[in-house]
């Protein structure tokens, strides 16, 4: 009887798991290098980042946010920036300026290897959102990361061309999720020191 229970629980656990896999840092670097090509991106204080350093920052984003897991799902309490910036207690209520009522921020979901937000990048069918990538959020948590990469690059190109989106405040906070302090200023040669040279 106990064996049957264990097998049943194991089967149930497998059926509830999101399909995803853990990518190797060097493999993700290679896939991003192809997608990024020779792009340059604005850096701090008017500098330009070369493509290799951009790739290093994007791989770092995947490492710090999802631990390279293509099926990563993270729920953040409404208004919480990320797991590293949790405060005491529950998030405060926000005042709706239009009718001076209080509202509790809705939780946010972050999807996939780059932890893209349901409030900006994709549609989770539960909330009406921006959906910059015109993509169902479920596409960001499968083994195929080509759509994740396309969405991430589309988002950054849109940001570079149009600047930070206008309020609501939630939108700007969701944009900040893609910029991790630990990933700024990385030098690709140092960050990828343990990786073989990328294929040509």
Automatic annotation (TrEMBL):
Q: Which GO terms describe its molecular function?
A: lysozyme activity
| Record-listed E.C. numbers | 3.2.1.17
Top-rank EC class of the record's enzyme: hydrolase
The positions making up the signal sequence are 1-20
Q: What are the record keywords, sorted?
A: Antimicrobial, Bacteriolytic enzyme, Disulfide bond, Signal
- Glycosyl hydrolases family 22 (GH22) domain boundaries: 133-151
Which SUPFAM superfamilies does the entry link to? Lysozyme-like (SSF53955)
Which Gene Ontology terms describe the biological processes this protein takes part in?
defense response to bacterium; killing of cells of another organism
Q: Per its UniProt record, what PANTHER family does this chain match?
A: LYSOZYME C
Name the chain's protein. Answer: lysozyme
């Amino acid at each position: 009887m106990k064996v049957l229970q264990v097998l049943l629980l194991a089967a149930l656990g497998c059926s509830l798991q999101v399909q995803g896999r853990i990518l190797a840092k060097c493999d993700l670097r290679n896939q991003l290098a192809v997608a990024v090509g020779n792009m340059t991106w604005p850096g701090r204080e008017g500098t330009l980042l070369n493509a290799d350093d951009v790739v290093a920052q994007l791989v770092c984003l995947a490492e710090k946010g999802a631990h390279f897991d293509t099926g990563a799902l993270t729920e953040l309490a409404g208004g919480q920036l990320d797991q590293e910036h949790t405060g005491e207690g529950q998030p405060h209520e926000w005042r709706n300026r239009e009718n001076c009522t209080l509202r509790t921020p809705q939780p946010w979901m972050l999807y996939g290897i780059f932890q893209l937000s349901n409030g900006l990048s994709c549609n989770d069918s539960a909330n009406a959102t921006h959906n910059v990538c015109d993509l169902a959020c479920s596409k960001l948590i499968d083994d195929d990361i080509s759509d994740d990469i396309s969405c991430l690059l589309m988002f950054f190109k849109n940001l570079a061309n149009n600047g930070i989106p206008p309020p609501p405040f939630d939108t700007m906070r969701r944009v900040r999720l893609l910029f991790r302090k630990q990933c700024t200023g990385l030098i690709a040669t140092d960050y990828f020191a343990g990786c073989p040279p990328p294929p040509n």
